[in-house]
Amino acid sequence: MAKKNKKKKLKLPLAYKPLGFVLGWSSGALAGIAFRKTWKVIRHEDDAPDALDRDRTWGEILLAAAVQGAIFAVVRSAVDRTGAKAIERSTGVWPTADEGGRD
Length: 103
Hints:
The chain is mainly α. It has helices spanning about 1-45, 60-90. The protein has 2 helices and no strands. This is DUF4235 domain-containing protein. Pfam families: DUF4235.
């Protein structure tokens, strides 16, 4: 019985890759929407500053980058964790090969 479970653990990370790709893409899209809405609330502007926008200050650019990075990290982690828990519930196996996770 232990061998069967070990084989399942070796095969699942490869099977999880396509789902992980879809989850990553969708989390990026969701984070982009969340960032645009958050920026509109923070600065009452439709567009966040770009690093190469000559008319923006360092403070504006760095604030936008920090907010965007935080939102992307939180959304990605929430989506990844939800997907992993769903895989574990349906298969009984955590979707990564080792305890360290993705990185």
